[in-house]
Structure prediction request, 627 residues.
Amino acid sequence: MTSDSSASRFSAALAAHGAGRLDEAQAVYQALIEQDPAHTDALHYLGVVRHQQGDHRGALELMDRALQHAPSDAICWSNRALAARALGLHSEAAHNLREALRLNSGFADAHNNLALTLRDMGDLAGAARHCRAALALNPAATDARLNLGSVLAKLGRYEEALACYREALELAGDDAALHFNMANALRALGDDAAAITHYRRCIALAPGYAAAWVNLGTALGQSGDYREAERCYREAVALEPNAANLVCLGASLGAQGRNDEEAPYYEQALALDPEHADARQNLVWLKLKRGEYREGWAEYARRWRACDYAPFDIEGIAEWRGEPLDGKRVLLVHEQGYGDQIQFVRYVTEIAARGASVDVCITQPLQLLAQSVPGVHRAWTGKPAGDYDYWIYAMSAPSVCRTELDTIPATVPYLFAREVEIEAWKARVETVAGKAAGHRRIGLVWAGNPGFYNDRNRSVALAAFAPLFALDKLHWFSLQKGDAARAQLAALETGATLHDFTDELRDFGDTAALIMNLDIVIAVDTSVAHLAGALGKPVWVLVPANGEWRWLEKRADSPWYPTARLFRQEEVGDWSTVIAALREALERKPKRVSTRKPAPKPGKTSGKPSRARKAPEQDALFSPDQP
Prediction:
């Protein structure tokens, strides 16, 4: 067969290849290689076909044979890098691309591919440099502009990334990947509305773009539209039923309060990936919400999600897992938010009852109160360390203590404000509220930390409580700290007075002393709700329809806090029925609430600890206290 014929056949194969007819091209390449085993172009491009078909090892073998005969073929070196990168051989791919650029310094595609490889290797500065080199050689290269944008986004330079994406859109017109990346950058900049618009445009252009459906669902969910988020996740699962997408779908159902429907999706995810942290953690929360404590606490103690927990070991000290404690020294270590610390510091009493001397490492705003818990030898702040036999996370204690619904250590109060501070606040409260019989003093907390994942749904605008402020014989006290709270108080148009002493509340000890002079605390799901419950004060908690596991399901009471009454939202986002129920409850004649006696101190037979004697010195509140 003549060389002209061979060249003609190769050209036809290359045209078929370019048109996507891979089988046709492959057959010709193979025939040419059988005729001439040293046909470098046929070897090279048959390797490209194999790479496109997913046979990356086979691609490398064919391209290596081609390079034996044509070591100066820059394009073959560049294509070889694609197969190596697909196999995760990033260093090898980078070497191949640098060789291609040594042979042809003006090879724009090689610069672009090297940028992607360096990005995968974590060299973002190098990746950006090669993207810019590719654009200098070919300013119309939309892929290079898209890749530069993605690198800049990884560097946190989202405005610059957006500029790249917009330039690429002007050059390329509508492109699904560009809209997707623009949406991601806009979300990072906090412009969820614009991000949603671009996700929708991406999906309109590419309905099978599963990642766009997922990210659109997440953006919608974060904006509070859980039903539409569910629809997006269902589309994503239909396209790619992987563990991550199944978890997203389950979580969107849980966010709507549809707890009975979410578990199967977590279980399907775990069937695909038994170690999937989000699936396990979400299933744990669901078990705890249902009161399935035996299995739930054991799973919870494993700390599945690194983003939620920062596991550590204290050098030379074993983590307590239920060993005998008679005569031992134990350190209970705080974790997570203030509410969690307040709820679980009660386990000091349980551990002390096993014969241990128990210290608590806790955050500074809670140090004074933690010292008052029956069984606490010493409460201090700082890095967990010291001469202890064991340490344990506060939220691992329920698992080790084998807590069930009917064995929750629910004796209240277990936190005690100092008598001297209670008396000081008594005079101030009576000055503004008087002493008239039948009048009640109510503390109000209407919002939580805006950084909390579900704060949109647990917090309530102060103005929504206006129907309550109109009731007679009620004196309202704001327990809501911060500039945002003061702004809402100033904007209140009801004419009602909410006494606000929050600037003088330095820590939870001060807040506790004020609460002891109130009749009721009404609070959304925040640390103050836990504080009131731990103090044994009547507390009415507003629980969203997608409330946390700690409030269980459907109950109007809490086995953790005997003086708590739960007012549950019926539908996410609608607090009107809760406010109506609160008003009805406030209009009734108040009933006397009895509390259970606190657990005695180890070594004592009865009585509660002396509040004044147990408090640390005042200056200890303002500096870390080491063991």
